[in-house]
Design brief:
heterodimer; A: 322 residues; two-stranded antiparallel ribbon; 7 strands; B: alpha/beta; Rossmann fold; 2 domains; 7-stranded mixed β-sheet; 36% helix; globular; binds thiamine diphosphate; binds magnesium ion
């Protein structure tokens, strides 16, 4: 494990991961109230990737994301309040309550709007990278997507174009081995997704996506390469989704994924692993972690109250923003 | 005869056609082991095996393009796209190839393929999961577009679609999937493509609808002497049935859930205006969704044509 990160940086990483985890868990507990009337794709188990990658991005950098975007948006610095309000379909939501969980947006944090079209966001990230270059910004553009998106043509087209133009793009594949209930082994020949970069002359690397320090390190190189004109990188982070593809429940009893694998991955909890590291190797005290935990819970409490108290959008808004 | 919902009726149609014709094969995302997002293909993998019920990669353009190639050379693929909003990545294959191979080969090849996809408002999810973009597909010559409104017709129409020599987009309303049950005969019967049906005869106003909106239309006309037409096939659509009715009633209202502008109701209205204008006693009215990207629940309720909106349009036309 690396040990060159400052204690503050480590604590920030931890806080981001914990915020994502607790936010998602709050969705799990509130969803049965049936006030969040939108499908939710939760990223519990995958928090280290969003946190480790976004740690290298500034507010002005761009991220593009998918149906499973809460973690990415939180890690990029988005306030929890407009996210919560959006899940409740309220007018103070980041998409004015029109889009819900799959359509978060926050232009002030470089998030032009996520969408559920698998693979759809990848070329958009390439375009944003091209725009960054053409306008003389040193902004980096990150595409978050799943292993399923690597089935789509847009993935391959995007790698090709980004490589050709040496664009400041980081392709971040969260390989959780499944697209809905379809295992990657049933959809792709058995080679690491990162290796597909080779065909497009893009450096690719497969990294344990549950180890936030490894994620952090791989992303650091990729973002630096992008920012310094070295072109795109394809990062494949192996991980596992704890909940069902969609919704707040576990799918463990549904037989979609082998129960043994599930248990193995639960033991590889990214938060627990990092927590142990912080306590044992980074001189972070249990009290410090507890203070973070209290703060995170309070922020989530406030966000939920904010979301629930926000008014519903008015019918007259229906045809706006078209 | 068994009573069943639309999911089961479509499943039965697929099963019977696969039993009858070994060239009928199913492909799509999660259609095999999982039985599809809405469980429409449930049990078919077990019965017909992996060679005929194929789980594909997550790649719509590839799925449809592959189905076209299969169809050109001897098979009768039925491809499933998980939601209508996900058909757009495959639009290139549908428009540029499926629709044109008959013409390109001057009739020597055709593409006997069906693309089934759930459409419309129904599961309270915005954007892609609630699309009703039938008009795009109707605009492209060479493609048939079919929209059943009940289990019985879903089965009969799907069998016709599978046997049809040309590509058919088969739209299944998510709202209807489990909403209505009705008697559906086992064994073969077909409902012809290109033919509308008169759901209820009437003399004062013709109300034309399809798919998800038919039920609401039937509710909305209570107490009115209305003739209700379920179009069932949008392309090619049954002009004769519409003209005959409008000539009798002198009034027409078209009800559909897609956005108004450029929706298929525009085509129907224009056709009536061209061919039955002199029989009209009032303007043709469209009751539709709004020209908006489909939003989340609260606004979704405003978006969808309600029985009140349908009734209001009928009353306006009647009182004109
Ligand atoms: C173009 C398109 N096809 C199908 C779907 C339906 N769908 C939603 S998420 C999903 C699986 C995505 O898998 P992956 O990319 O691995 O992301 P994960 O859900 O594992 O995070 C599918 C098939 C979609 N949203 N978009
Ligand atoms: Mg996945």
């Amino acid at each position: 494990m690396r040990n060159d990160l400052s204690k503050d940086a480590l604590k920030r990483l931890y806080a981001v991961m914990l915020t994502i985890r607790r936010f998602e868990e709050r969705v799990v507990s509130l969803y049965p109230e049936q006030e969040m009337k939108c499908p939710v794709h939760l990223c519990i188990g995958q928090e280290a990737i969003a946190a480790g990658v976004c740690a290298h991005l500034g507010t002005e950098d761009y991220i593009f994301s998918t149906h499973r975007s809460h973690g990415h948006c939180i890690a990029k610095g988005m306030d929890l309040k407009p996210i919560a309000a959006e899940l409740y379909g309220r007018s103070d939501g980041c998409s004015r309550g029109r889009g819900g969980s799959m359509h978060l947006a926050d232009p002030e944090h470089g998030i032009p709007g996520t969408s559920a079209i698998v693979g759809g966001c990848i070329p958009l990230a390439v375009g944003a990278g091209l725009s960054s270059v053409m306008q003389g910004h040193a902004r980096v553009s990150v595409a978050f997507f799943g292993d399923g998106a690597a089935d789509e043509g847009t993935f391959h087209e995007s790698l090709n174009f980004a490589s050709l133009k040496k664009l400041p793009v980081v392709f971040v594949c969260e390989d959780n081995y499944y697209a809905t209930n379809s295992p990657r082994s049933a959809r792709q020949p058995d080679i690491p997704i990162a290796e597909k970069g080779r065909g497009y002359a893009i450096p690719g690397i497969t990294v344990d996506g549950n180890d936030v320090l490894l994620v952090h390190q791989a992303a650091e190189e990729a973002v630096m390469r992008a920012r310094s004109g070295g072109g795109p990188t394809l990062l494949e982070f192996t991980t596992y989704r704890w909940k069902a593809h969609v919704g707040p429940n576990s799918d463990i009893d549904e037989g979609c994924r082998p129960a043994g694998a599930h248990e193995r991955w639960l033991k590889k909890c990214p938060l627990e692993m990092f927590q142990r590291y912080l306590l044992e190797h980074a001189a972070v005290s249990a009290e410090e972690l507890e203070r973070i935990s209290v703060r995170v819970d309070r922020e989530i409490d406030e966000a939920v109250v904010f979301g629930k108290n926000s008014p519903y959008p008015d019918a007259s808004e229906l045809t706006e923003y078209v | 005869m068994a009573t069943m919902n639309m999911v089961h009726a479509i499943n039965l149609a697929l099963k019977e056609e696969m039993q009858r014709d070994k060239d009928v094969v199913i492909l799509g995302e999660d259609v095999g082991r999982d039985g599809g997002v809405f469980r429409v293909t449930e049990g078919l993998l077990e019965q017909f095996g992996e060679a005929r019920v194929m789980d594909t990669p997550l790649a719509e353009s590839g799925i449809v393009g592959t189905a076209i190639g299969m169809a050109v050379y001897g098979l009768k693929p039925v491809a499933e796209i998980q939601f209508m909003g996900f058909i757009y990545p495959a639009a290139d294959q549908i428009f540029n190839h499926a629709a044109r191979i008959r013409s390109r080969s001057r009739g020597r090849y055709s593409v006997p393929m069906v693309i089934r996809t759930p459409y419309g408002v129904g599961i309270r999810s915005p954007e892609h999961h609630s699309e009703s973009s039938e008009a795009h597909f109707c605009h492209m010559p060479g493609i048939k577009v079919v929209v059943p409104s009940s289990p019985y017709y879903a089965k009969g129409l799907l069998i016709s679609a599978i046997r049809d020599p040309d590509p058919v987009i088969f739209l299944e309303s998510t709202r209807l999937y489990r909403m209505i049950k009705e008697d559906v005969p086992e064994g073969e019967y077909t409902v012809p493509l290109g033919k509308a049906r008169i759901v209820q005869e009437g003399g004062q106003v013709t109300v034309i609808s399809w798919g998800s909106m038919l039920q609401k239309t039937i509710k909305a006309i209570e107490g009115v002497d209305a003739e209700v037409i379920d179009l069932m096939t949008l392309n090619p659509f049954d002009e004769e049935a519409i003209f005959n009715s409008v000539k009798k009633t002198g009034r027409a209202v078209v009800v559909y859930e897609a956005p108004k502008t450029g929706g298929f109701g525009a085509e129907i209205s224009a056709s009536i205006a061209e061919d039955a204008m002199l029989y009209l006693k009032g303007p043709i009215k469209r009751v539709t969704g709004y020209d908006a990207v489909l939003p989340l629940p609260k606004l979704e309720d405003y978006y969808m044509p309600s029985t009140e909106r349908i009734r209001k349009a009928i009353d306006e036309v009647m009182q004109y």
